[in-house]
Amino acid sequence: MPLVIRRALASVLLLSAAAMFVAAAAQRWWPACGPGLFDSDTCLRLQDHVFDYLVAYEPWTPVGQAAQYAGVAFLLLAGAAAVLPFLLVRRPLWLQVPAAVLGAAVFAVIGAYAWTSGEAGRAQPGDAVNAATFVWALVLPGGLGVWSLIDLVDEPWPGERHTRWRGALTAALVASTPLPQLSLGPITVGYSSHDTSPWSDAALAVPLAVAAALVWKATPGGTTPPRRTDADLRVVPSPSRPAG
Fold first, then answer.
1. Angle made by CA atoms 222, 172, 133, in degrees to the nearest 5
2. Where is this region: Disordered (predicted)?
3. Which of 58, 77, 57, 79 is nearest to 69 (CA)?
4. Residues 16-52: pLDDT tens digits?
5. pTM for this prediction
6. Which residue of 35, 115, 136, 160 has the fewest C-beta atoms within 10 A of its own C-beta?
7. d(C-alpha 20, C-alpha 205), whole Å
8. Cα gap 30→37, rounded to integer Å
């Protein structure tokens, strides 16, 4: 698949997922928690965790189509996770394929769980979503961090100037995971709640939109760089100056 198509596909999937997360949040928070209404009685009631829908657990009360929209967003992320390793990971297929399969599977499980919970009107039982949520919260950001460090210390190919953009892309993707969002959500909306801050579940759309833009900067303009060989690292001595 040509690089430009991979770039466009990853970018569109990330941006579409961001839009769906905002749409899901609107199902919960609009119009009760509009500007200046965060402390209203209706908005305070919606801040209860029983309305949380990204990964719903009983007791749970669905609000509109929030869970279904979130399910679509996670499925879009599954598509992006399947593409990104082949676009960014500068390693052979034995590393790219497992990374793509793991990322896609995690978001597909969470997306299917959110969708079916919303359709059923109650949180669906299952250990798979617990495992997937654990991987999303801890394993994926940890893996991204390790990859970023390796990429940072790995000597670039001659003429390559994309390491800093890959680092920024990694930071954006990590910022969209659950643990950073515990702080970034309330900071983004500028409001700290007794439970779930209004619109904080839409805050992960911000790093995803940033990641969608950074995809275009994080890889060279030509084709994806080949796997490094010893010849790439060979130091060519500069010609000595003639005696003068």
1. 115
2. 219-244
3. 77
4. 999 999 999 999 999 999 999 999 999 999 999 999 9
5. 0.86
6. 35
7. 8
8. 10
